[in-house]
Amino acid sequence: MWRILRKIFRNLNFNRFSYLFTHKYVSLFSLIDNSSKIQRNTIINRGVKIISSSIDNYTYVAPNSVVSHALIGKFCSISSNVKIGMGIHPTDLISTSPIFYAKDNPLRERLTDPTKIQEHKQTIIGNDVWIGVDALIMDGIRIGNGAIIGAKALVVKDVPAYAIVGGIPAHIIRYRFDENTIKLLEETQWWSLPISTLKTKVELFNKESFTKEDLQTLLK
Ligand SMILES: CC(C)(COP(=O)(O)OP(=O)(O)OC[C@H]1O[C@@H](n2cnc3c(N)ncnc32)[C@H](O)[C@@H]1OP(=O)(O)O)[C@@H](O)C(=O)NCCC(=O)NCCS
After folding, report:
1. pLDDT for position 12
2. Which residues contact 53 (CB under 8 A, 6 or more apart)?
């Protein structure tokens, strides 16, 4: 009986109720662990799991995605069914089974004391990153500002700022802009401007061929 109750409580997470009052939208059918930090204007949809991660303002996570051990910047669009940082098992020990090294493992039993096996590496995702549906991003990857991860990509290497990557394993398809424009965009750090300032610049964000001068107005 006690075991069953413990199981039920382990799977309940009351955070989501408090988010109802403090955040713009966090689905009641999502799961955010106590060590994660979600900003007020971060949108978390149904079926999403956030574990030991931090997600900044104006980023949304679409249904059924999993974000684990990641730091995610502002204005990111994370599509549905995306998986980030799903964990590492040892590849050069006798066994890959977590029963030999992990304190909390799916087998609910541990044969030895926890070892120094690193089960997660922090994944770092910049600002204004768009991650397509069904993408899988391996532990410890760094994704630069403005990058695009194509649908169903398997990301095993770092992604430079403003690169578009896709495929299994993911490769660079192209860059969104030329080198100078990327440099300028990164200098503007527009994602750190207050939303009230961005509101006044919205026309610029809808301009198809913006100029160097346009970008410089973001620095003012
Ligand atoms: C990655 C993406 C942005 C590329 O857009 P694009 O730059 O306009 O690319 P194009 O369609 O012109 O294709 C360029 C090349 O990349 C390839 N490509 C496009 N998307 C790809 C993907 N997801 N994976 C692998 N290769 C891809 C194309 O086959 C093409 O290859 P080729 O030059 O050998 O013919 C887009 O295809 C994508 O995956 N978007 C995500 C869609 C999504 O998940 N939406 C959910 C809503 S949030």
Report:
1. 58
2. 36, 37, 67, 68, 69, 70, 71, 72, 84, 85
